[in-house]
Fold:
Amino acid sequence: MNNRLANDRRAMPLPATIAEAIALEMERDPSILCIGEDIGRAGGVFGTTRGLLDRFGRDRVVDAPIAEMAFSGMAVGLAQAGMRPLVEIMFVDFIGVCLEQVYNAAAKIPYMSGGRQRMPIVFKTAGGCIGSAAQHSQCLWGLFAHLPGIKVVAPCNPHDHKGLMAEALRSDDPVVFIEHKDLLLRKGKDFRHHPEVPDEAYTVPMGKAAVVRPGTDVTLATLSLSVEHALEAAETVAAEGISVEVIDLRSIVPLDTDTVARSAASTGRLLVVDEDYLSFGLSAELTLRVIERLGLTGLRQVERLAVPDVPIPAALSLEKAVLPGPDKIAQRLRQMAGGR
Amino acid sequence: MNNRLANDRRAMPLPATIAEAIALEMERDPSILCIGEDIGRAGGVFGTTRGLLDRFGRDRVVDAPIAEMAFSGMAVGLAQAGMRPLVEIMFVDFIGVCLEQVYNAAAKIPYMSGGRQRMPIVFKTAGGCIGSAAQHSQCLWGLFAHLPGIKVVAPCNPHDHKGLMAEALRSDDPVVFIEHKDLLLRKGKDFRHHPEVPDEAYTVPMGKAAVVRPGTDVTLATLSLSVEHALEAAETVAAEGISVEVIDLRSIVPLDTDTVARSAASTGRLLVVDEDYLSFGLSAELTLRVIERLGLTGLRQVERLAVPDVPIPAALSLEKAVLPGPDKIAQRLRQMAGGR
Amino acid sequence: MIRANAEGNSGEPVTHARFRRMARMRAFDEACLDALRRGVIHGELHVGLGQEAVAAGMAESLRPEDAVVSSHRNHFHALAKGVDARALLAEICERETGLCRGRGGHMHPFDPATNFSATGIVGASLPVALGYAHAFGMQGGDAVAIGVTGDGGSHTGGFHESMVMAGARRLPLVALVENNALAISVPFSEISPTATVAERSSAYGALGLHVDGTDVDAVARVFAQAMDHARAGRGPVIVEATCHRFRGHFEGDPEGYRPREERRRLREQFDPLTLYRARLEAAGESPDVLDGILAAEKSGMKTLLAEVLEDEMPDPAGALDHVFTDNAGRPA
Amino acid sequence: MIRANAEGNSGEPVTHARFRRMARMRAFDEACLDALRRGVIHGELHVGLGQEAVAAGMAESLRPEDAVVSSHRNHFHALAKGVDARALLAEICERETGLCRGRGGHMHPFDPATNFSATGIVGASLPVALGYAHAFGMQGGDAVAIGVTGDGGSHTGGFHESMVMAGARRLPLVALVENNALAISVPFSEISPTATVAERSSAYGALGLHVDGTDVDAVARVFAQAMDHARAGRGPVIVEATCHRFRGHFEGDPEGYRPREERRRLREQFDPLTLYRARLEAAGESPDVLDGILAAEKSGMKTLLAEVLEDEMPDPAGALDHVFTDNAGRPA
Ligand SMILES: Cc1ncc(C[n+]2csc(CCOP(=O)(O)OP(=O)(O)O)c2C)c(N)n1
Ligand SMILES: Cc1ncc(C[n+]2csc(CCOP(=O)(O)OP(=O)(O)O)c2C)c(N)n1
Ligand SMILES: [Mg+2]
Ligand SMILES: [Mg+2]
Structure:
């Protein structure tokens, strides 16, 4: 029976894990409420808020009009009124209509108020590529991470989604929580990396990376869907005798440079894989922080693999060409292992 | 007489140089028009559009309501209708209300249309610190640079403002043109680095950095106001026997890695100074690109100095503490020159 | 008898032309569904089935120099504007022969030749249409810009800001609001502070028109009125066309928010083709002629799809092209 | 005789309280100008001189549990809400003793104790006020959220979106639009599609009220009506108060867009203190009493400024504090 249950939970689709985390927190803390398009009656376009409206009512689960500026700013006012809002921006690509309230208000008010006004807000959103072209495929964690005052989280498996969502909802800081659409559409069993998901509430801390596969030749740091791709690539090249240590960063802000640097110091080779745009983003920041930590002579190779500064094309043949998928990762790993 | 004239032009405040560039281009090309708040009757809050309304009329110089989403999107429609709009977002900090039209439309349509629709739009805006606190002090070039499809320019002297504005207006690609408020408030004579500003129209290419002071011990790459600070610091430490090569990047996209790498290869030391936020921005990208170019062993030291991921505080005592001003630059240069 | 004034089948009675346009639109989206089932379309496909009368009614008043900026649900507006159906279908099927060489996809068709474009961001069509309207105002002709959005889009800030600017400058902008009473799952009645969108027009000094968007004759008439107003320089117009969405918001939408029963009822009662057919037959039109039109459009579209599916996919080697005119700024 | 129901001088006749509030506001902004001249305030300072009657009229209807979210021109609204004048002035003078420890500055005062906040982004106050309104709606009391913006702010998308949501949910939100007929240099009459902002209220199912914002009695009456409406759960209200800005948009504004002559005329004709004084004197009030109030407020504020200027500047060592609760995420 226990086994059946565990199996059932492993078969749960990812969105149910997220909905469970939110429900447990809303139960625990009556000041939590959710606002977003289609999060109520429909339970979220991916099902991540399913069941919440029935359970918590329309004051705490607000089906919003397409008015992101209003309802992201609403979160700021709610926080000022002592509430702990979760706001869903359906796809992260839409942030351009309401970034104002995220970066100029939520992210800055704690500082601007001299620490007198906290902003316990979760901006929950879906990113990543599943064949949806330029305006519905972005990751954009690099954009948020550049702007001070917001934590930025992008988990890769059901266990961490549940734990990091709870952590985000308990945090007194604003958190951007980026789910990956490809992961949202998966069954639990389709995850390579899938630790047990406990029934009860628990948290996973932000800013602690996880070594999800140990290895000795190359350190590969990444996050979100790319962890799955990295594991696949690592398995592929393992058969060829290349041992890859795969690190799931879990959050971009805070960024766990320690864990990555420790690993890179031992392998001497660092590859950062990022489904976000290549330039002015995560890959350069993380690589350089590791270099700053270990010194220019502390590493033999650094490489990065990311979307090469193009909008995501519609045609799958092109999308594949710009994404850091398992094949490209494996190829890059081979080059590195064969290199200097 | 020629001398008097040259002197007069050197005394011109920076905004007049910009207004002159726009006027010359509008004269040359009837498809150019300008839209923004207070750009008409008031001539721009800094005077960068002074005289244009009288000369070109209210169809081509549009005093807009506070409706940035409407008028930045308007630029997209105008471009589609064959026009070449310049849109002013008064302060770059306000981009959060209309980023959508900049990054999802203007920046992506050329690609999304398979090259069939070009977007010759200039988004002109003012950034930088002059004691105006968290919502009116940002640079944010790192944010734009992360998003594919937009060129990003931030000149440092009257000559380049005029030439790069002309270049931006003639470009068929969307360009974000970021002026620095501190520079806008200067008289021509207050610039350390001030090449002659010719009367007639000319262009300065995007993506070509300028070595504004040659040196042998440390390469310092920066842009916008920080070029002035860098020159001041370089002068200070020159007296102490430290020779600094100062490079003005001029644009962030395209980024002239070549020029910086060439210099860094010879000095062995690279310092990137950035008034934008430290993390996930220009400083890491440029430094890492240079490392990628020269190899991990091609440099002795890399350092960066930028706003340490905090909102800009109101109090001047605090603002000074977070900005990479001349003193901090000089101090960092000394550390580097004295180091390994 | 009035003759159709737009593309193809010239000389055809206007009733036939209207029916044919709707039939073509329906056949087009059915071809899309077919292509989707074959796995050649990706992402969230939004079809317009049930809403044909709106675009078909609009089509008659459109001139080549007019501009239409549409939304995520844009196929019918593209066809109405005269975008080449083959190029559009090829784009939706992500082919190199597509309108945008397969880079844009179904939510992002751009056709400089017909002044047609779209966006996947709700409400973002209006500001772009405003830009065309300003250009048209400057150029001094009587071209009009149409910004299309849904009921959901009418709540966006961009809608408001665009109407404010168009109202103050009396620009030739028509905001066409297809009110299908739903924004994905959220009923208009629950999130709108007003019973209609059209009644908000007074806030913008605009003309507000409301029309039954299942009645192609009514749409054609009301839309013509809107265009006349805008062409005459009398400022912007909001045209609200009420209609019904017959399928999920996107293909794959589980539609947990409305009973199957209701969807069936909507299809039975409000199919614009069925309704128009009934009207024409009541006026003596021969069912055979109408069947003939339906069959011709359907088979034409089938052929088109078959052709398109033979076209090449974009070459991955070109994946980085077209970002900048000079390919500068691309990392080495 | 009616008594003033808000802070200080309780038992004072309401006329004196109104005059005193306006006198205090004026003295406050004059102190700011004084501080500016001494070089202790940086950035674009926006004073409210000429607009005192709006905030003073609002003050009487505000309860501690109500919330006010204001704009770049926020000092008077802060005082009306009961924000401590000393802490506010110290913040504006960038002192460690300031409301926000000198981090926020004049455009960004935050006072959780009185539910007062502001923003330097035009129009961004409304969404935040909407958040308070939703919280108040949930909490079931009769607290009201006031979002303050200028005429310029009424054109923003955020204004529209917030009113849509408040209208549909009938939330206790009052949008106070201080219409001083200018957004920096741009005249309202030139960029607004409507003659007033209040008339747009029907687009949101809101109550729209228009008042002469130079007349403190009128504002107090109309604002009370608005608050009653909102407190009673009858949904949002737009209160438009027409007024005049006596100085440049910000200190240092060259004001090339209006003749000096006009500014002088506005000051002569529409000074709310002068107007109110005339009314009170006509009704038999002694000029000495009013002079006494003016003098007391002025000298009180002078003393306050002198005190504040003795306060410490923030210690640069703390420049990185307060970003996150745990100081995490800061680069090593
Ligand atoms: C700014 C923005 N927010 C949310 C979405 C996601 N989304 C796509 S379509 C849609 C509903 C649109 O409703 P409506 O405007 O009525 O058009 P309809 O789909 O009914 O034709 C939503 C919420 C989006 N694309 N853009
Ligand atoms: C989104 C945004 N756009 C532009 C500005 C620059 N700006 C500051 S105040 C102002 C004018 C505001 O006019 P109004 O709302 O009428 O207020 P007033 O200054 O007249 O009190 C402008 C354009 C801004 N702060 N935010
Ligand atoms: Mg709809
Ligand atoms: Mg104003």
The mean pLDDT of chain C is 95.
